[in-house]
Design brief:
This protein has 12 helices and 22 strands. With 411 residues, the protein is of the alpha/beta class. The strands form 6 sheets. It has a 4-stranded mixed sheet with strand order 20-21-1-22.
């Protein structure tokens, strides 16, 4: 389904309730699979979380997790420690291009039995579950924090716990801290000293309810909407914490550069455009929050601001090569984008506030491409290809945009 977003002057000031964080929910689902007494409140309604839950509960011999990268990593670790379990886990064509060798080799260090069915180091996998006794391993920490989180989440169910040594500069640190804090919430003891993380075994745990905060990655698109709106525009978002586990909460500080303020009141936040952007050039290191890179880059495009975003090495192995995808789509407006393995620079100003034939944004089966470009309707009419892809993380995205006055039609 392709849609056209018609240009609007400003959004209507409304209250939006975003569902729970996908990152927190998927961790909670895995913890609940290992400790059945856990209850989950305000879980994500995303496709990824549904696929995760389905894979755990249906106990099929062949599991297809589609594009759900987090599910692939977490479930690989989960099934590896299930005695007498034999399962094949596969995904979409793109999923079979996303590396998983670092995690698989770490699990093999623990004694796991995992076989590659096609290309070495990539899904699909055949996993023969067994009881794992080893508890000391090392892992490269520079590629994906999800490999580390997958190991940490299962560690309390290993007979001797886990002592995990991290090699190299750790990427996406807040996501690892999120994992450890969620383990602490259910009563598991952990320790992170220098480059070593220890998770202690825990067989008996008290009943726990994990209340999931709303998703800051999804909130980022509303920050972009307010940034691209006239001064005085505001929106309210529900169920957010001032002391968040989510690394993407750094969006608060970054969007102050665009004249957007954030006010907490209870569990609500009010976003307001209070001033024009303070500068014409933005520099930001997104090592700890790479998922908001697309939102920020497109905001800079819409505000005619140059930028240099770094810490983006993980974007090459996401649902698509997000750096190349951003370059392709931003340059449709005539600008110049320079990308490296680690960075994206918007190097020429582009005035997109024009009445010309709508630009068609290709999404590359990536939910964040669709949602990151949608706020540009505050500046120009544009078309979004395969708009339904947003269901991967935020199924109600288009419905919620309609609530705040966005005008759209199917093509």
């Amino acid at each position: 389904m392709n849609i056209r977003l018609h240009k609007i002057e400003k959004p209507e000031s409304r209250i939006i309730k975003i569902s729970g964080s996908k990152s927190e929910t998927n961790r909670a689902l895995l913890l609940k699979a290992l400790q059945h007494s856990i209850q989950i409140e305000n879980g994500s309604d995303s496709d990824d979380s549904y696929l995760m839950l389905q894979a755990i509960s249906e106990k099929k011999e062949v599991i297809d997790i589609g594009h759900a990268g987090t599910a692939m990593r977490f479930l690989t670790a989960y099934f590896a420690i299930q005695p007498d379990c034999s399962v094949i886990i596969k995904g979409s064509d793109r999923m079979h291009e996303r590396p998983i060798g670092i995690l698989v080799e770490a699990l093999k260090q623990l004694g796991a039995e995992i076989h590659y069915l096609e290309k070495q180091g990539y899904p699909p996998l055949k996993i023969i579950g067994k009881k794992l006794i080893q508890n000391r391993i090392s892992i490269q920490a520079t590629v994906s924090s999800q490999y580390i989180s997958a190991l940490l989440l299962i560690a309390f169910r290993l007979e001797n716990g886990l002592r995990l040594q991290l090699i190299g500069k750790v990427t996406s640190v807040p996501y690892i801290k999120m994992t450890l804090q969620m383990l602490n919430r259910i009563g598991v003891k952990t320790d992170w000293t220098d480059d070593v993380i220890t998770v202690y075994p825990a067989s008996e745990l008290a009943d726990t309810t994990l209340s999931i905060e709303s998703d800051w990655s999804s909130a980022s698109y509303y920050y972009a909407i307010i940034a691209l709106s006239p001064v005085g525009t505001f929106l309210e978002l529900r169920d957010f914490e001032k002391e968040s586990l989510q690394g993407d909460a750094c969006i608060i500080r970054i969007y102050e550069n665009f004249g957007v303020t954030t006010h907490f009141k209870g569990k609500s936040i009010r976003l307001e455009k209070v001033a024009s952007p303070a500068k014409e050039y933005l520099e930001a290191d997104l090592t700890n929050a790479p998922d908001i890179a697309q939102t920020i880059a497109v905001t800079c495009l819409g505000l005619n601001i140059l930028c240099n975003l770094t810490g983006l090495h993980t974007l090459r192995i996401k649902e698509t090569d997000r750096l190349q995808a951003l370059k392709n789509e931003i340059e449709k407006w005539g600008g110049t984008v320079c990308i490296t393995e680690n960075s994206l620079q918007l190097t020429s100003k582009i005035n997109i506030n024009r009445d010309t034939k709508p630009v068609l944004i290709k999404t590359y089966q990536d939910h964040r491409m669709a949602m990151a470009f949608a706020p540009l309707a505050l500046k120009t009419t544009l078309d979004i290809q395969e708009a339904e892809v947003v269901s991967k993380s935020y199924p109600d995205f288009w419905k919620d945009l309609k609530k705040i006055g966005f005008k759209m039609q199917e093509l």
